[in-house]
Amino acid sequence: MGPHNHYEASRTTFELTVIPSFPLNGLGVRSVVYTAASNAAGSFRKINAGVRAITEVSEEREFKCFTAEPHIHEDCAIADRYENGPIAWMEAKSARILKLEMLAWVKQLYYGPGNNGDGFPGLIQTYDRTRMEINVGGTTNNTASSVWLIRAAAPGSLADDGARWRYGNNGAMSFKPVQTLPMPDPADKTGQKMLFKYVTGFTGYPGFQVQSLMTVVRIKGLTMEDGKGLWICYLRLLEIGCSLIARQIPRTSLML
Predict the structure, then answer these.
(1) Domain count of the chain?
(2) Containing structural domain, residue 101
């Protein structure tokens, strides 16, 4: 079971393919996060007249990747009967499990600990609620949703301030060798019955980094009410300095 399984699984999730990823030495780093900027009118000037300096507001924050380790196991009596052999059976099952795992990573991207408290913070925890949020105002109970506009970092450009996936341990992700191990019968309350299973696992260290708070916009309160849906969402984008986000069209993703 090789790295192609990880690649194939990532193709099923839009967010993992359109937002670039960068490896990270170890699992954490203290980095600068840009939170605001001044002089948005530009630095045009007349002859013999000066201009105000463009300034940035930033702060240091601790960024971490988190351990993700799905376990895959199968009764030997099932895998051994597969016409292509037990290893081929385990490879196919591992690919299916990994797709589900990566769907969970994407859910973590949006909800953070609201999805899994042992995982990385998501957009809902890291975006600027004061300056980078538009509330469309839908009020229908239990139907409101959000759209996220994200300016992603340029592929291969670590210096770009766009949002990006980070994979710890230098980006290493791998399956463990398949082993045959005795496992307790989950239906046996006495704990005395055993069966042999093929066992493997996948280990990765994902995280999501928002380097600049000016690269993520949330539009919330979208419902089926008249004037509260996706069309009004498009119109409201004009209200929030979206040139900062959308000026690089190929690297801007609309996340529903």
Answers:
(1) 1
(2) 4-36+59-255
Within-domain flag for 53? no
Q: Would you say 127 and 150 are in contact if contact means Cβ atoms under 8 Å apart?
A: no
Q: Residues in the chain, how many?
A: 256
Tokens of 46: 């007349």
Burial 127-163 (b: 16+ CB within 10 A, else e): bbeeebbbebebeeeeebbbbbbbbbbeeeeeebbbb
**CATH code of the domain in which 145 resides:** 3.90.1690
What pLDDT digit, counting tens, does each position of 189-245 carry? 898 999 999 999 999 999 999 989 989 999 888 877 666 666 565 555 555 545 444
Residue 44 lies in a domain: no
pLDDT tens digits for range 19-43: 999 999 999 988 888 888 776 678 8
